[in-house]
Amino acid sequence: MTEEQYHKLNDYLNLCFQAMEEEHSFFLRNINKFVIASEKCSIMLSDYDIQEENAEVHLTALEVFALGREIVEKLCPCYLQKYNSLLDSGVLDFSYGIQSEDYNPKKLYTYDYDGSHFCYHNFEPEININRRYNYEDVCTLIHEFLHMTNTKRNKKNPAGRVVKEFISIYFEIKALLYLIEKKGIEPSQIFWNMRLLSIKRHMNDFNHYSFPLACYEIFGEVHPKYINETNPKANLEHIPDLSTYLYPYYSSKERFENDCKDMFFNLERLEQQYQQNTSDKNISNIASLSNYLLENSDFIYDYQYILGTILTYYAIEHCKVQDILRLNDIINNMTVDTTDNEFVYGIDNLLCSIGIDLSDLNVLEESMDSMRHVIEKYSTSKRK
Ligand SMILES: [Zn+2]
């Protein structure tokens, strides 16, 4: 990386941090804590040999729909009417992959596992499932259906994507547990650890950004001059927890430079895309370069799935389904005009209203306990 590229990277990060003030103020205020949480959780999961467990059971689209209906009726009957209308209204589409040319997955959408998604396509709501022909399809359908309950066309939900992702992942995991516990589906027949495998990947990716992000947060700029190879812990001595988790990274300038390079080229590519899109006048719903860089940057993408999954595993043992439905009601009733921005955008405040205190580090510990319980209950492979 040249000096000029470092300079540019700092400019990009400055823009991203500015945009975070709005929707991701919680992340902004807690970057270093989040970096530690992601490291800790990834170390815990690396104790287990988590493999894809799935069986082709050749479920038809109607069987997937009927199982989904049963789950909605049991878990969230308030949405049953909406669910029942999915087929007649044509919202539910199992023909993944045949969207028209103007389909832009980076717009007004929630893009989920392997391309399955809920979005507005030609102004109409659409749930599209990239089918596996097994029970995973039922869980994916529940996930995307929950997105539909709190995503309005052309209207940004002020609660932000992280809370919405949490709600969808929560119901997806509840659906999975329902299939195993109430319908007697063998864990080996269902991809019961899909989310754990998926956050492991997100955490591996995020851990490449955590070093430059923490550096920017602590020193106000990203630069190799902060790497002291002879005494790697020196720069982080005042933040003992962070120095423990970032120690291996801080001991190598080469690693730092590689991570910065990846981040720089990603953000540079996004800037070019943005310039191209604005000249095509194709970007009316994107306010600024600052928001564009943040919304499309890999680290914020990984962050929302990691936090959504950590919260889900906490909630399956410590919250009631009613609490999560209440949270969905709260975010649906919020408006962007609300003057109290801290409440509007603060995930911590929103979660407090259903009894989850994010300032309490036990949330992470209890979430990891809950992940361990699930793994030990359903895993057929032994602990490493
Ligand atoms: Zn989602």
In short:
The protein is mainly α and 384 residues long. The chain has helices spanning 3-23, 25-29, 31-45, 61-75, 80-88, 136-149, 160-181, 194-219, 240-250, 253-279, 289-296, 298-318, 321-333, 341-345, 347-352, 362-378, and strands at 92-93, 109-111, 117-121, 124-128. Strand 2 and strand 3 form a beta hairpin.
Protein described:
It is a single chain. The chain has 384 residues and is mainly α. It folds into two domains: 201 residues, no CATH class; 133 residues, no CATH class. Helices cover 61% and strands 4% of the residues. It has a four-stranded mixed β-sheet with strand order 1-4-3-2. Helix 1 crosses helix 10, helix 3 runs antiparallel to helix 8 and helix 4 crosses helix 6. The longest helix has 27 residues. The chain is globular, with a radius of gyration of 21 Å. The two termini are 39 Å apart. About 4% of the residues have low confidence. The chain binds zinc ion.
Write the layout of secondary structure elements.
Layout: H1 3-23, H2 25-29, H3 31-45, H4 61-75, H5 80-88, E1 92-93, E2 109-111, E3 117-121, E4 124-128, H6 136-149, H7 160-181, H8 194-219, H9 240-250, H10 253-279, H11 289-296, H12 298-318, H13 321-333, H14 341-345, H15 347-352, H16 362-378
Parallel strand pairs: 1-4
Antiparallel strand pairs: 2-3, 3-4
Helix pairs in contact: 1-10, 1-11, 3-8, 3-9, 4-6, 6-7, 7-12, 8-10, 8-12, 10-11, 12-16
Bound molecules: zinc ion (ZN).
